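=== Structure Prediction Worksheet ===
Name of assembly: unnamed complex
Input type: mixed (protein and possibly other molecules)
Chain count: two
Listed entries:
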Amino acid sequence: MSAQDPKKELVEHLPAMRAFARSLTRDHSAADDLVQDTVVKAWGNMDKYKPGTNLKAWLFTILRNTFYSSIRKGKWEVEDVDDVMAGRLSVKPEHDGRLAMEEFRDAFSTLPDDQREALILVGASGFSYEEAAQMCDCAIGTIKSRVNRGRRKLQELLKLGDDEELSFADAETLAVLNTPGP
Amino acid sequence: MSDRQRDNPADTGAADTGNVQDQIEENLRKLYDETLSEQLPDELLQLLKKLEESDTRK
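=== Predicted Assembly ===
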């Protein structure tokens, strides 16, 4: 069985690359620009990719490096979300202790870059701590620490006690759930 | 507290913390999965087409 052409396989990873890019840039348009830049770089350097290794991790590493390089060059302005979000998160939501997805998204956006990327890589993208550490060029312990700090910070921002529940049911769903049956 | 109550993970603070953290993980995945289910933008598809065409010409 022959190995899949990495250029064809790259296409399969585009949705995940967009999701990672959004978590880094916090902006849909900037995320798509970042993915395009990453695709061009990856395509031109495909001879450097070692077949049989983790292509998704390789692509994510290029994307991450491109992001930080662009920040350094001032290509994108990083919005100071702390001030913007602080007001929005200052009051605990009152809808029966339940939190909307929008509130979770806002809280996530306020996390520092390193915590956001660690949470997405390990918590959502399915990478191991070791793979995430390699991608971020740091020790495994550093990634674990970033993940833990990110989780605690989210809990703090969402003003969640240890016994409270997160729920992402929207108003319409809740209305249906609360309607008495026949 | 009875043995039965003590054995119930829901009665422990540690389990509660785990519950909140599990939910945070779940919501992270939801946030991530939202993008996965979207259609790719035309600009990206056009870029891929251009790259493939440029490979063919080589």
